[in-house]
Amino acid sequence: MSEFRKPVPAPTDASRPFWAGCAEGKLLLRRCRQCDKHHAPTRHVCSCGGSDLEWTEVSGLGRVFSYTVVHRAPDPAFKADLPYVIAIVELDEGARLMSNITGCSPDAVAIGMPVRAIFETVAEGVGVHKFQPANS
Ligand SMILES: [Zn+2]
After folding, report:
1. CB 21 within 8 A of CB 28
2. What is the pLDDT of residues 47-83, one digit of tens each?
3. Residues whose CB is under 5 A from ligand 1 (ion)?
4. 27, 95, 107, 117: which sits with the fewest CB atoms below 10 Å from its CB?
5. How many angstroms is it from 80 CA to the middle of ligand 1?
């Protein structure tokens, strides 16, 4: 793991529970106690106006909402991954997360494709979420 040269998440107070979950192989979102809607990690106020959001583990299942295939590395550390997919995944619980789609050719990725979360340990105690086809 000392070979990992990509940037790693730098949790803030707002996102720390989310990244701690990723390190444990759990996908956590913020759920509004008032209306039950789930939100992305850094959201503090629900669309219903509620501000009582609790961290809750979700299924990790969702669908590709949008994606792009990266052919030019933004940093030399990403060169070996080319081409790779950056996607917005809409989780079954409703929230959307930006992530990578792995486990299949970029050509196989399509909008609406069912995916499930997987987790990769990138440094001591640091995990990141990715998604792969749900049927793999
Ligand atoms: Zn709400």
Report:
1. yes
2. 999 999 999 999 999 999 999 999 999 889 999 999 9
3. 32, 34-35, 37, 46, 48, 50
4. 107
5. 42
